[in-house]
Amino acid sequence: MPPRNPNSEEVFDFVVNKGNGIKGLVDAGIETVPDLYILPVEDRLEASEVVSVDSIPVIDASNLDDPKVTDSICEAASKWGFFQIINHGVPLQVLNNVREAAHKFHGLPYQEKNKYWVGNSPTHTVTLTTSFAPQAETALEWKDYLAFRFVPGDQESFALWPPVCREEVVEYMKRAEPVIWKLLKVLLKGINVKEIDKAREYTFLDTPVVYCNYYPRCPNPDLTAGVLPHSDIATLTLLLQDDSGGLYVRATDDHSWIHVPPIHGALVINIGDCLQIMSNDRYKSVEHRVVANASNNRVSVPIFANPGFNAAIGPLPEVLQTGEKPLYKQVIFSDYLKHHCSKKHEGKKTMDFARI
Ligand SMILES: O=C(O)CCC(=O)C(=O)O
Ligand SMILES: [Fe+2]
């Protein structure tokens, strides 16, 4: 347990133990940022660290058979680790519906939401929680989120998921999954992986997870983190944001940050640790962070394309066939996930778990 200001224990109890979340605290009428949420100065995002000269690529994904398009995807994944796609085929209405559903869920009364709070939920495939690892953090992240796990063959969970948003989340997943597979295939082809049989599919995408992230408006976002710098552990993340802004990714100079401007109808794609490991560093899983908003309640809906729990993750034979030295050992995805979740967000530190 990190040392905390004694006033913070009360706030911690309200937000985490009682399951009110950060939204519950904001709704209670706080006008300043509680100590529990104030970041040490060195962890805050300073305006001087944000560069505006660069921006991550925006790629028209309407023809993923066009070599010019596939080259630009692979190049973006190597250089930036992040890009946005437009004309991706997921209908705008599906995106609008899932964003609205996220607002509706987080807007439910305490009694309704508390049924899904971690520890209370009727199924491990849906949990509501706050911050990333509250027990391990000195300052908490200004975010609540409802996580859905899509376990293959699971017929039971849907009935137990919150009725206010489950159809919209399932529809979003259904429409987005083919896009994720298409992108994975393009990226894998770019590192010489031409055939993906059933057994191999399991190592690239098996149990995707959808978050309905909610960042309530914050009295002073500069003092806090919506999400601290981290990289995602999946192979790929597909993220829907709203028009609030606030997502920043690490620039190629490795110390400044670039804002990811909201684009109507676009999806943000980023490479996760597993694909960086599999590609032996050809593709980059890039750090990113979120700053909450002073006037808007921001929502975002990422889909994490997670491998199967028992999948062995390591540099792929196709990448090493020319005699290249592996930079990572083989790790089991569930061990990697467990390690990631046992600590607070700390940039790209999770990758050390697999590094040789
Ligand atoms: O809310 C966002 O824009 C990004 C959230 C994120 O990075 C995450 O949930 O891993
Ligand atoms: Fe992330």
From TrEMBL:
InterPro entries: DIOX_N, IPNS-like_FE2OG_OXY, IPNS-like_sf, Oxoglu/Fe-dep_dioxygenase_dom, Plant_2OG-oxidoreductases. GO terms for molecular function: dioxygenase activity; metal ion binding. Residues 204-307 form the Fe2OG dioxygenase domain. Signal peptide: none annotated. Keywords: Dioxygenase, Iron, Metal-binding, Oxidoreductase. The keyword Oxidoreductase applies. It comes from the Eukaryota. Pfam families: 2OG-FeII_Oxy, DIOX_N. The keyword Hydrolase does not apply. Its cofactor is L-ascorbate. Gene3D superfamilies: B-lactam Antibiotic, Isopenicillin N Synthase, Chain. One of its GO terms (biological process) is coumarin biosynthetic process. Belongs to the iron/ascorbate-dependent oxidoreductase family. This is Oxoglutarate/iron-dependent dioxygenase. It comes from Corchorus olitorius.
